[in-house]
Amino acid sequence: xxxxxxxxxxxxxxxxxxxxxxxxxxxxxxxxxxxxxxxxxxxxxxxxxxxxxxxxxxxxxxxxxxxxxxxxxxxxxxxxxxxxxxxxxxxxxxxxxxxxxxxxxxxxxxxxxxxxxxxxxxxxxxxxxxxxxxxxxxxxxxxxxxxxxxxxxxxxxxxxxxxxxxxxxxxxxxxxxxxxxxxxxxxxxxxxxxxxxxxxxxxxxxxxxxxxxxxxxxxxxxxxxxxxxxxxxxxxxxxxxxxxxxxxxxxxxxxxxxxxxxxxxxxxxxxxxxxxxxxxxxxxxxxxxxxxxxxxxxxxxxxxxxxxxxxxxxxxxxxxxxxxxxxxxxxxxxxxxxxxxxxxxxxxxxxxxxxxxxxxxxxxxxxxxxxxxxxxxxxxxxxxxxxxxxxxxxxxxxxxxxxxxxxxxxxxxxxxxxxxxxxxxxxxxxxxxxxxxxxxxxxxxxxxxxxxxxxxxxxxxxxxxxxxxxxxxxxxxxxxxxxxxxxxxxxxxxxxxxxxxxxxxxxxxxxxxxxxxxxxxxxxxxxxxxxxxxxxxxxxxxxxxxxxxxxxxxxxxxxxxxxxxxxxxxxxxxxxxxxxxxxxxxxxxxxxxxxxxxxxxxxxxxxxxxxxxxxxxxxxxxxxxxxxxxxxxxxxxxxxxxxxxxxxxxxxxxxxxxxxxxxxxxxxxxxxxxxxxxxxxxxxxxxxxxxxxxxxxxxxxxxxxxxxxxxxxxxxxxxxxxxxxxxxxxxxxxxxxxxxxxxxxxxxxxxxxxxxxxxxxxxxxxxxxxxxxxxxxxxxxxxxxxxxxxxxxxxxxxxxxxxxxxxxxxxxxxxxxxxxxxxxxxxxxxxxxxxxxxxxxxxxxxxxxxxxxxxxxxxxxxxxxxxxxxxxxxxxxxxxxxxxxxxxxxxxxxxxxxxxxxxxxxxxxxxxxxxxxxxxxxxxxxxxxxxxxxxxxxxxxxxxxxxxxxxxxxxxxxxxxxxxxxxxxxxxxxxxxxxxxxxxxxxxxxxxxxxxxxxxxxxxxxxxxxxxxxxxxxxxxxxxxxxxxxxxxxxxxxxxxxxxxxxxxxxxxxxxxxxxxxxxxxxxxxxxxxxxxxxxxxxxxxxxxxxxxxxxxxxx
Length: 1100
What we know:
This protein is an alpha/beta fold.
């Protein structure tokens, strides 16, 4: 520049006239510039600094020399000052200008200090820069002498000639100078253009727009800073199509070879099959890749087993949309959420998080994509509620948030039993819905702070990006970061200018190129001095640990009457893997839905009963569940299973009843008298038993013999009693008749028997009395004197003895049998008789028991028959199978067949009607087979029923839960505590011994009891009736005697003898004996006669 300035006629020196300063061409310009070599060095040095370069040369050639420099430097905020005016000086600094732009402009936007800049360039590059700097100064200072006109231009105004010192001139042809400078510029510039391939999914609209904005901004701000760009749009749902599209684009990109092949791949795909195709391609081709695919460590399948070389240049950074779901995990852990329905919109991908999101967290959860229409959303929420999911999480934008909340409000999914958690990446949105009263836990990003001019510039960039801004900014920054890191690798020679690549057709799984590029270190170095548009990037040691760095703020938002009434900041979460949630307001701990479980039940008194009046459940199991809640706090809702069955396995392998509800996860707990069975334990879990072993047993109607006070008369039939009575009268009449007509009877032969002590005249009355008393142990008294009468008496005695003996024996047997007779005592007795019908309820556990036992007997029979009829057996083996008796029992087969013929009751009510022989079952005795607890309760509440036999097929009762449910261990611990405290025994006493429904039935007579008063009380009644009859007889006798005495007096006493009135005549008969020839009255007592006469009432 100095040389050009000294030789040009348009320099400041050649136009300066000290004597005519007013008319000089540059009289008004500042001090001269580029007059010396020192000034040229200073110009080039200062032009790359923020300082002013100073004044420019005045001559035309120097001005042209720096024209390029001035134009190129105008895109930077620095002032480059004045440049040489001549053309040769401008060309001399061209290389320096180009180098300055390519080396400094991009780093000027990202690097903060000179130290970082020095790190980005190697010593070899510094040496090249210095050499080019010296060459530029040399060419600018000495330039090319203009030989087109040998005459020097003269100054416009004459002035005294001034002798100028001779200076050495560098004589270089102008064409040679241009060729040299062009070669150097191209050689340096070719190494600085990264070639780029961008792979993105068609549905990633935010990513596509952000990458396009980043490339556009880069080209506008730094022209020539980026080489060729190939963009590939793939269908992420089709791996084959995606891989074919990528391979075709790649083959086209590397076809020309040389320095035009791609240096870097930006993989902006999200997930699914297309993303897998992209990751498999980059790993196979060995191309440096910066990926924004979703997934943590190991989620990108084809990047799991990378070698050490590949781990350095295949880099994945988790986008905000992939990191935000981790906040759900922290919320579930921090707030002890037991169930969660996780919904997400199109901005999120959750396929890879189905298993990992809540791994090792005791939260039962469902992850689904949110439906597009509100009616479908309502149905989706209803299904979640059917699965007992009451905590709802949403990852979405403003539109999906409003739609979900409106659907929840319309379904009345509000209040303490429901929890709403909304997470969004839109920093400006707030939840809005037509809600009356809803509290929402709302999380959104913390917006960045704009504080300086550079951030102000980034704020302007943010205005051009789509929402959510944090996602758009991530893709925007990631694009610039990848290009800058690759440019750094090119500048430092860490990445070759002409890399070697292979295409898809030549790949054979063993020829992946080795790169030796530490691309991760380049990314980390560049990002340190990069001002992010929104959020920084946190770098880890390996893929799955690199992610966007941002903070989520937790708000408690209360919406009342469609308006937000409060927004209370309650915590924060620094985005990261396994980073805990920081709670600043304990109120959010109560925002979750209360722990509530769905209980499905079958009514079975006294275990599970329902009060229709109050609409509440009660019973042994409800008390048990309330006792468990003392150890495991929770709430519950009970509903009865629709088919009213415990659950049985059908032929097609499906379950019914409560079993089906647990398997389909429509219930959390199955509660009732639920038997633990082997086939059930394969699909659900049971707690430890809460009740003793309970088997099957038989119930029948209690035998109630008819009682009667005169039951002793029923020992003999009425005909027998009539015959006995007829025999009594006939015998009495015969005895009277024989005694009257027999000459040897007493009344016909008094003199003969006058000396006997026993003199009995068998008149009709005496005959009746004799026959009656003869049947008693006292006997009939004096027998007749005549032989015929005695024969009649003897015959009567024999008859009476037989009758009395028979009656006595039959009376005892009759009274005893009526108390002892129970037709069935065991199941064996039931199977051997055909009079009494028996059956369990259809499809009940008892039904299944007999059905299976019959099937087993049939199978055993088939096995035995096959063995017996097997022709391959030898004679000895067949002889061993030859038995006379049937070796396989068919008891249950016959019983089940008898049950089928009798018919299975539909329910317990029908079974009771059949037992009591009501309605159409009046003529059929029936025995009902059911589990012992049911039978025991029926007997306790019905005095006309009795349990028969011992229990069989005994199994315990337990609470059933879903397979793998954490409730199993929690309930086990609680039940064991209750057992140790003997609480379960108290519950049994409450519902069995102290049950208000228990009937106080009369004790059933047993064999050791005596004859009851109901059966023998008639005897006492007979005595009472006899005494009463005797009293009436006495009264009659007295009356009859008095009436007869009065009649006799009237007949003896004359009317005139008043003094003799009322005197009875008495005949005194005294026997007369002859003593010494004289008649003497024996028993005569003169004193008695005097006494009688003195009374004056008797006549002799």
